[in-house]
Structure formats: C-alpha cells, structure tokens
C-alpha cells in the first residue's frame, strides 16, 4: 500500500476513537460528527520512477516517486542514518490530539487541527517520510535573512568545515568562532515581518469594504 497518512489511517480500525474518548477532558456533544463509513480505495505500489532528487542537507536524503495502481504519482523521502522512531511517535501524539479536538465543538468550530504526515522507520537508523507538497522548510524561511544580515557559507564549504567525529569541545568552539558569526539570530525578525505583512493585509481588506 502507498505509505501516505490518509491511506494508512483509513486502513486502521475506527474503535481507537472510543478509547481516546475515555481519557479525554472534552465532553462529547450531540453535534460531534460520526466517523464516516466511506473507505478510501486501497492503492498499492505499481512501480518506482527512475528519477530521484538528492536534497541539500547533511544526510543527503532522497526524494523518490512511487507509481500507484491508480496511475497517480506519489512522492516520499528516503532518509538514511536518522532515528525516525521518535518522529513516528510524535506523529502518533499529533493524531491523538486531532482525535481529541474532533470531540470538542469549539475546536471543530475553529477548525483546529495538526497537520500530520506518515513516518515509517525501517531500521534503527533510517526510514521513509511522506513528502508534503507546497511546504517551505525551516532553512528556506531563514536563508534570505541570513543572506541579508549574515554571511552564510556555501553548502560544500559548510560540510567541509564540519567534522561530526571531532570532540564536542572542538565542535562547540567552531560553532562559536565560525558559524554563529555567519548565522545571526533572525527568527524574531521573520516573525516581525510576518506580523507586519498580515496586519497590512487585514488593513487593506478592511479599507476595501468602504471603497
């Protein structure tokens, strides 16, 4: 079966929601939607595309494409040398949070939900992760600010200057003397820009009502 969240969750039995409710602080009311009996069709892997993308990170994960029996193309990321069991458990916690929020009328009215994705560990260090389309990674958010306010290293030079097997004291010293100067703290600036842009957008929408 294609290892995507929507397909794996629909393949699970629905009795788990009742068990979650026993430990929930929310009160189930009459407006709580019942689980739909509609099941998604099971889509199995038909083939794997020959093309793949190597991502620019230290572990060099690869994005591959699976062809499903329905003819569609599904993207997943193969991540080596990384402990994914904690990520998988964290996704389980997020799914439980979604189940609890579905049981609360106010949470449903506000459409509160946590976006989940499939994480499948295949060994002690490595596994596959569902690829989320239109997702901006953390580095992609901060890189423009790093280039504006700092002096970021090229990818090749960054990895060349970093030795993961060196003593912890040497790595800390290199971080303080080299990387901290080139990568200043910019996350607060990003939040200020987001708040400013959102406030301008809301103001423009309000002004357009009176035009």
TrEMBL record:
Domain of life, source organism: Eukaryota
| The keyword Nucleus belongs to this UniProt entry's keyword annotation | yes
List keywords of the entry alphabetically.
DNA damage, Kinase, Nucleus, Serine/threonine-protein kinase, Transferase
- GO BP terms, alphabetized: DNA damage checkpoint signaling; DNA repair; telomere maintenance
The UniProt entry's GO CC annotations, sorted and at most eight, read: chromosome; nucleus
Q: Name one GO molecular function term.
A: protein serine/threonine kinase activity
**Any Pfam family the entry gives:** PI3_PI4_kinase
Where in or outside the cell it occurs: the entry states: Nucleus
> Which coarse location class describes where this protein primarily resides?
nucleus
Q: Which residues form a coiled coil?
A: none
Sorted alphabetically, which InterPro entries does this protein's record hold? DDR_Repair_Kinase, Kinase-like_dom_sf, PI3/4_kinase_cat_dom
Pinpoint the PI3K/PI4K catalytic domain residues.
48-211
Gene3D superfamilies in the record: Phosphatidylinositol 3-kinase Catalytic Subunit, Chain A, domain 4
- What is the designated name of this protein? PI3K/PI4K domain-containing protein
